[in-house]
């Protein structure tokens, strides 16, 4: 995991990752946080609300990133 983190840090600091991929990775990270906090949803009443907001934002970021990466460009 440390190798992936170091690789992502290096790519982000050099500006190699496009805006679309940045949005996709952010959305995946948000969904990962939702997955991490899901087990405590029955003990803390705020977790379902936070998880719902993060899930919606994560899905929106992934959709925005995919749209940015795979938009139709005019043929030259």
Would you identify the regions where 5 or more consecutive residues have pLDDT less than 50? none
SS elements, strand count: 0
Radius of gyration: 16 Å
Note the overall shape: flat
> What class do helices, strands and sheet pairing give?
mainly alpha
How far apart lie the N and C ends? 42 Å
Question: Main sheet, how many strands, which sense, barrel?
Answer: none
Proportion in helices: over 70%
Strand content: under 5%
What is the averaged pLDDT score? Answer: 86
How does this structure look, described?
There is one protein chain. With 76 residues, the protein is an all-alpha fold. It has a domain at 17-69. The protein has 3 helices and no strands. The chain has helices at 2-14, 19-37, 47-69. The model has no long low-confidence stretch (mean pLDDT 86).
